[in-house]
Amino acid sequence: MSEKSKTFTCNCSSKQQAELKKIRDKYTPRNESKIEQLRRLDASATKPGAAISTAVGIIGALMLGIGMCCILLWSDFILGIAAGAVGIVAVIMALPMYLHITKKRREKLATEILKLANELKK
Question: DSSP secondary structure string, 32-100?
Fold first, then answer.
């Protein structure tokens, strides 16, 4: 088999070649540099806390809204106050929850991040 038969050539327009390169890049393995690894690890420290605290904040806001509906529309003051109080507590706890989860994740990833940072320093 000759070398020519092993290569792929395409007589495509530049737009098609750009699309071809974009598709090919999706399937070729990437070599991640040290700084990219460091950025990825740093971002991964905040994502879980942000996701959980956002969910808790949204649920708390919805509970507060349900409490308001109970009081204003259905005249059920006891249930409305209880639901509203739960909602207020959930909304207030969202930020401390984010900070706590992020702090724990940073402590867990600290050795790996510091090791990569020291390798970059050299």
Answer: --HHHHHHHHHHHHHHHHHHHHHHHHHHHHHHHHHHHHHHHTS--HHHHHHHHHHHHHHHHHHHHHHHH
